[in-house]
């Protein structure tokens, strides 16, 4: 009986151990991560074995493993025997390589450094789809016209009873400026200059949450599989 109880206890302990023990590789900012990798934490400090990913330069001899992996990709000065860690303060990471329809991106080169765009785009038009609900109409007179000049007047029915000036289908458009409308909305200057003569930036940032990025310098040295 005692032997069976001991076996049951051992089996239960083994199951409990399997359920509670996790591999370090499954945790963020763990002490056995890969050197050179970056983790994010909501803490105010980086854990032991990590330094802030803030672009700081370090002497070659201080973090030799990081130096072997980074070189001077992220800054530093070879003439002064220093290298830098990536700077993710106020930045978002972007994958290296060339995405579909995108330009090549190499490690260490900032992309879109400004938080707003000041690049002037060519002057262009944005088409507005108008419907019967748009509140725009062309005023006309369905009685015979009384004026000979268009300025200050509206289209009217012809005086002669035999004149045919209308059709129930279209195959052309009126000249530019023939019909105008005031459409209210926010002014956004893109390629054009506002009255002040100064270009106005266009915000390009989406919702963000600030966290701390940390670089691993004392974990497992990664092996290049290639």
Automatic annotation (TrEMBL):
Query: Where's the Phage tail collar domain?
Result: 36-93
Leader peptide range in chain numbering: 1-23
**Is-annotated flag, keyword Magnesium?**
no
Keywords, comma-separated and alphabetical = Signal
This protein is called what? Tail fiber protein
